[in-house]
Design a protein that fits this description.
Elements (H helix, E strand, L loop, with lengths): L11 E6 L10 H16 L8 E3 L2 E5 L6 H8 L7 E9 L2 H12 L6 E8 L8 H16 L2 E2 L6 E8 L2 E5 L3 E2 L11 E5 L5 H11 L3 E8 L7 H17 L3 E6 L1 H10 L2 H23 L4 E2 L12 H8 L6 E2 L7 H12 L5 H6 L15
Parallel strand pairs: 5-6, 5-7, 10-11, 10-13, 11-12, 13-14
Antiparallel strand pairs: 1-3, 1-4, 2-3, 4-8, 4-9, 7-8
Helix pairs in contact: 3-4, 5-6, 5-10, 7-8, 8-9
Length: about 375
């Protein structure tokens, strides 16, 4: 904290908020525990302690040597988080909260500000409005800045919870969704294009664990498609902590179809056989659903009629998260979340918990 000059013991934490988990009622503890486990998994090596559940939010205590920038980067890729902030604690006394708020704000450049207090602990004698008024008057007197409740240049958030108050002035947006591992396992047919990884990303965001299946034509073609599939699985491992991918040779099936069937039906038959093989992988993995990157009308095989014919090849349900999206929408999702900038592979390689090389070298 900047320039803190009073006697309160100040601890530094990350306060983490969620949206959907609060609606889970009887299952809320299960979802919160999974989110805690996922957070602990990604930040353990960067100076953070174990995540704690507290009053409808999570607290991640930080050690003195915590690498806050890296922790924030990793929290930004954990599904289930609505927003999070580096925060400081104050004792539950309004005088202490006033001093802590000013110490946090002091030295920053702003002409207008607001205090946004929430009283989670209803035993605290002051209401949220009273906290706003008291702390706002304290800061206004010392800063000379005006209070602006609608368009403030600086906001100081205060959360009164259990035995202390949490204060912060900057908060970062999370990805939302549900914690990975809470919605079961799915098998994703992963091509080398943009659609299937975006479809996988959307399923992972809903709490699913994705196992990937990629079909290749090696040794009749080079290994480029396999390398690209591994790369995509590695990118998605940043969101689901680890990835497993099956690389399945498909050249013999393709050759058989080319010899025995007319050109007009070949693509449909390829897709039907791919689904059948993916269904076998799903049964091996104890998954109950297949996922594809289909979008209605995007290519010839994705007309309603063809999607119907292809789907009938398997008994297992097939989810198509992109079915109503156009190409521009899919590309935008990829830019916002499902892909990362160049150079990120280096950071990925350093993560010991990422597994992307579970490979089957023969068709199942």
């Amino acid at each position: 904290m900047r320039n803190h000059h009073y006697n309160s013991v100040v601890d530094r934490v990350v306060v983490i908020h969620y949206n959907e988990l609060g609606l889970k009622k009887g299952n809320r503890e299960y979802f919160e525990n999974q989110l805690c486990a996922n957070i602990n998994n990604v930040v353990a090596d960067f100076g953070a302690e174990r995540t704690k559940r507290i009053s409808g939010r999570l607290l991640l205590p930080l050690k003195p040597d915590a690498q806050i920038t890296e922790i924030q980067k990793r929290l930004g890729r954990v599904f289930g988080i609505a927003y999070f902030a580096e925060a400081w604690t104050s004792r539950q006394a309004v005088e202490e909260v006033e001093k802590c708020a000013w110490s946090l704000i002091q030295g920053r450049n702003f002409n207008s500000f607001r205090i946004d207090a929430r009283r989670g602990d209803k035993t605290f004698p002051h209401t949220s409005v009273e906290i706003n008024q008291r702390v706002g008057a304290y800061v206004k007197e010392r800063s000379g800045a005006r209070v602006d409740l609608e368009h403030a240049e600086l906001t100081c958030w205060i959360e009164v919870v259990e035995k202390y108050a949490l204060l912060y002035v900057e908060r970062l947006q999370g990805l939302g969704g549900l914690p990975v591992g809470t919605s079961g396992k799915v098998v994703v047919l992963l091509s080398g294009g943009i659609d299937s990884p975006v479809a996988a990303w959307k399923m992972i965001k809903r709490g699913c664990t994705a196992v990937f299946v990629h079909f290749h034509s090696f040794p009749y073609t080079n290994t480029e498609s396999q390398q690209k599939a591994r790369h995509l699985a590695g990118l998605l491992a940043e969101y689901q902590l680890r990835s497993k991918i099956y690389l399945i040779p498909f050249a013999d099936v393709q050759r058989h179809i080319m010899v025995e069937t007319p050109i007009a039906t070949r693509v449909i038959l390829y897709r039907r056989y791919m689904l059948r093989l993916a269904e076998q992988v799903a049964r091996r993995e104890k998954a109950h659903v297949l996922v594809t990157g289909d979008s209605v009308g995007q290519v010839a095989s994705q007309t309603i009629e063809n999607i119907d014919v292809i789907s009938r090849a398997v008994q297992m349900p097939i989810l198509r998260p992109l079915i109503g999206d156009d190409k521009m929408e899919i590309v935008e999702i990829a830019r916002r979340g499902a892909t990362r900038p160049a150079g990120a592979e280096v950071a990925l390689a350093k993560r010991r918990r990422v597994i992307v090389d579970a490979v089957v070298d023969a068709a199942v």
